[in-house]
Specification:
Layout: E1 2-3, E2 16-17, E3 30-31, H1 38-45, H2 48-54, H3 62-72, H4 77-101, H5 105-111, H6 115-148, H7 152-160, H8 162-172, H9 174-199, H10 203-209, H11 228-239, H12 242-251, H13 262-297, H14 308-314, H15 324-330, H16 334-366, E4 368-369, H17 372-393, H18 399-413, H19 415-420, H20 422-433, H21 435-442, H22 446-465, H23 467-472, H24 481-528
Antiparallel strand pairs: 1-3, 2-4
């Protein structure tokens, strides 16, 4: 298997117009030999799924899963499983859209919607990416602080320097970037497998927790301010993220395909699905291990501070751990150090994928391209601002206040994901359902279509259902009656705005699809008359 690099001789401007192939520098650059056996072919196509899986195990997932385990034992395992299965379905459709249509999701939406709607959706998606970037900044800065005792303010600034890492990666080729991401995933997986293995969890309880019950989404039982529903919404919100759909539809096009050969396209779709499902299975394992950690590594109810600081401290505090083996290892500092290393690896992985996604949506929605390092520098500097403000405002307070403020900022920033997710899922489903877009062979089958609509409607409903509590979270742990009323009014106004924007999106997409069908028929008629 070889990798070619598209390097035009012309000199690129810093910011320029872009309306060509998705991620043009790497599009179709990796050749896959024909007539290999299944496993060699799978290896050749493997890689894009790993970059996508990173988004399903980023720092934003950690506290929600561990806290869910602390509060409700293994009951929320079923939520992680359901979220992972939905992710597999959506990512399969995203990869298929990119491979068959030769457009990423942003390009496909923009081609079928008005310019004004395209700009609105671009801004919405940018906010969602910046929200995930805030979690990465916080995770990486805290990891540097915990590992090297670097003051938080300085650690936050150091996270900006990851742009230099990105510059280096752009020089070594996309296949090597895929390999680095896989290695970092394996580091994270090793850390949590090791810690959970030492804890000797109740595997019967784990398996039982994979089956959802009526209590899984209950609101009647509250533990430490969390109901099963709010815990489930936290896990879902941290797992299924919109930017992964844009990313996968772009990087699925890195393999060289003969689009005149339907069998070659079908083979690419097939192995892209295998790659995605295998890598997302690893993400499911990591998220499950995080929840199992909350149950088995720590004593029940021991973790009062679910922030990264609190979890790090708990892994070195022998009075919080569940058995003698863990206690003996914790005395060496290995448990807490491994946790911080995994946190740093997760942040660096998300750096790579977040930057690629940002370029995809910028080129697709507003046809503007800038170098990856500049794109990363701009978004990282914007994301650093709220983190720095948070650190500076709490610098004179106690360590607990500082930790709580950072944790709340990370959790509250995720509210933007609830806004953006329907506007990636719904267009994706509509376009992959369409024979005009995908052709009769590649459009969604009836059962994929049914499961897709169930997933889109269910996730949209759950995200909107949790929006009032998410807004209320901005007012701290003890909001006043006035703040509660204001948050509800604001949440309902936002829900109304989201629903109105969804209607606008559906209307524009249907009109654009009709126009696309007419263009196809006209082209076919013209060809027939020759």
């Amino acid at each position: 298997m070889s990798e070619k690099t598209n390097t035009p001789n012309r000199k690129h401007k810093l910011i320029e117009y872009a309306n060509g192939p998705s991620l043009e520098e790497i599009n179709g650059t990796i050749e896959v030999p024909k007539n290999l056996n299944f496993w060699k072919t799978l290896f050749a196509y493997s890689g894009p799924g790993a970059l996508v899986a990173v988004g399903y195990m980023d720092p934003g997932n950690w506290s929600t899963s561990i806290t869910g385990g602390q509060n409700y034992q293994y009951m929320l395992m079923s939520v992680i499983l359901i979220s992972s299965l939905i992710a597999m379905l959506l990512q399969y459709m995203a990869a298929k859209l990119g491979i068959v249509s030769q457009m990423d999701l942003a390009q496909a939406i923009r081609a079928r919607t008005s310019k004004s709607l395209g700009i609105v959706l671009w801004i919405l998606t940018e906010l969602a990416i910046m929200a995930t970037d805030i979690a990465e900044v916080i995770g990486a800065a805290i990891a540097l602080y915990l590992l090297f005792n670097i003051p938080l303010v300085i650690a936050v600034f150091i996270t900006v320097l990851d742009v230099l890492v990105l510059l280096l990666l752009t020089k070594i080729g996309f296949r090597k970037i895929e390999a680095i991401v896989v290695c970092l995933i394996l580091v994270i997986l090793f850390v949590f497998v090791y810690q959970v293995a030492l804890s000797n969890p109740d595997w019967g309880g784990v398996i039982k927790g994979l089956v959802p019950t009526a209590d899984t989404f209950s609101t009647s039982r509250s533990v430490n301010g969390m109901t099963p529903l709010s815990g489930a919404l936290g896990i879902i919100g941290a797992t299924v993220m919109p930017h992964n759909l844009y990313l996968h539809s772009a990087i699925s096009q890195t393999r060289k395909i003969d689009h005149n050969d339907e069998e070659d396209v079908a083979r690419t779709v097939k192995f892209a699905a295998w790659d995605s499902n295998i890598q997302l299975s690893f993400a499911f394992v990591v998220n499950s291990l995080l929840l199992i950690m909350g149950v088995a590594v720590f004593k029940s109810g021991a973790v009062k501070d679910p922030s990264f600081f609190g979890l790090y401290e708990a892994l070195s505090n022998t009075s919080m751990l569940s058995n003698g083996i863990l206690i003996s290892v914790a005395k060496s500092g290995a448990l807490s150090a491994l946790f911080a290393i995994a946190l740093l690896a997760s942040g660096q992985n998300s750096t790579i994928t977040g930057t690629l996604t940002g370029q995809v949506i910028m080129e697709g929605f507003v046809h503007m391209r800038m170098p990856l390092w500049l794109r990363r520098l701009v978004t990282r500097l914007i994301s650093v601002i709220p983190v720095l403000i948070c650190v500076l405002l709490t610098s004179g307070k106690s360590a607990i206040d500082e930790h709580t403020a950072l944790n709340n900022l990370m959790n509250n920033s995720q509210v933007f994901l609830a806004f953006a997710l329907p506007f990636s899922m719904l267009p994706l489903l509509m376009m992959t359902d369409s024979a005009a877009e995908m052709g009769k062979r590649f459009k969604n089958s009836l059962w994929i279509k049914g499961l897709g609509w169930l997933s889109v409607i269910g996730l949209t409903f759950l995200n909107l259902l949790g929006l009032p509590d998410s807004i209320l979270g901005f007012f701290g742990d003890n909001p006043s009656a006035g703040e509660q009323t204001f948050s509800k009014i604001l949440a309902y106004l936002l829900i109304a705005a989201i629903l109105a924007l969804l209607v606008w999106t559906v209307f524009d997409l249907q009109r654009g699809n009709k126009r696309y069908v007419e263009q196809q028929l006209a082209a076919a008629a013209k060809e027939a008359n020759k």
